[in-house]
Amino acid sequence: MFAFACSGVTCDARRTTHPGHAAALAAQMGRDYDAVFTLGGDGTVMEVLGALADSATPVGILPGGTGNLVARALSIPMSVSGAVTLLSAGSTRRVDLGRLGDGRVFAFAAGVGIDATMVGQTTAAAKRRFGVAAYLATALRASWSLDAFTLRATVDGVPHRFRATAAVVANFGSVLNGLLHLGPAISENDGMLDLCVFSPANVSDALRIGWRMARNDFGTDPAMQFVRGRHISLDAEPARAAQADGELLGSTPLDIEVVPAAALLLVPSDAPLHTWA
């Protein structure tokens, strides 16, 4: 469900009934309102941001899903009432989007490997019972399996080859309100995307990567590689499931390009820019 608000005084609410409905409603009605608020998961956010990309209508993201990746990245409270209060009195910010080859967009990140396994193997029952902790448990199990694949990546025309267990094309740099960081100096408004490749060979490597992600420590490490660019293509051998902002996309290959400053978001007035050195 998402609501259209007018000048913070009156609002109209519409409930979505099927995939793609949020995008259709936002395209049809959103530009006639002062702001659009989404209430749902990150998939709903993807649809609305895609429909209103490059428009002057700001989007406020209310946490209504399990992961709420984008809301957390913007320091939006995890209660709907708290989010409405802060966003209504907040400010606007332009951020980049990633655009997939089929035209869909994402705000937070897309990837293959552990993150897609996490999305695909976390059951609805576990999400209802444990919330975001269900995703973390699935991710930990996937990490210990060290299920590696050959990743062929092309970044701005330059080919790369990696042995990987996870590859993330990140727009925002932190997960779960800064609990984990994905890579060095990732910014959501620099006109770039960051390919973060993780390739632990054993459990010791996996633990070291997790510790360094928690400490935002991305010095030279043979199990981590980072490449920045505007156009990133990924292919995997064997093929791997892919996801974007917590929504399964099918399998590799993926073709992704940045759309600079495409989304206008409502954010809390004190929300920091998510850039880390």
SSE arrangement:
Blueprint: E1 2-6, E2 10-14, H1 21-29, E3 35-40, H2 42-51, E4 59-63, H3 69-73, H4 80-88, E5 91-100, E6 105-106, E7 109-113, H5 114-121, H6 124-130, H7 132-145, E8 149-155, E9 158-164, E10 166-170, E11 174-175, E12 180-181, E13 193-198, H8 203-215, E14 224-229, E15 231-237, E16 241-244, E17 247-251, E18 254-267
Parallel strand pairs: 3-4
Antiparallel strand pairs: 1-2, 1-3, 5-6, 5-18, 7-10, 7-16, 8-9, 8-15, 10-13, 11-12, 13-14, 15-18, 16-17
Describe the model:
It is a single chain. With 277 residues, the protein is an alpha+beta fold. It folds into 2 domains: 2-101 and 261-267, Rossmann fold (3-Layer(aba) Sandwich), CATH 3.40.50.10330; 105-258, Tumour Suppressor Smad4, CATH 2.60.200.40. It is 27% helix and 37% strand. The chain is built from 8 helices and 18 strands. It has helices at 21-29, 42-51, 69-73, 80-88, 114-121, 124-130, 132-145, 203-215; strands spanning 2-6, 10-14, 35-40, 59-63, 91-100, 105-106, 109-113, 149-155, 158-164, 166-170, 174-175, 180-181, 193-198, 224-229, 231-237, 241-244, 247-251, 254-267. Strands 6-5-18-15-8-9 form a 6-stranded antiparallel sheet. A 6-stranded antiparallel sheet has the order 14-13-10-7-16-17. Helix 1 (21-29) packs parallel to helix 2 (42-51) and helix 5 (114-121) crosses helix 7. Mean pLDDT is 85; it is low at 1-8.
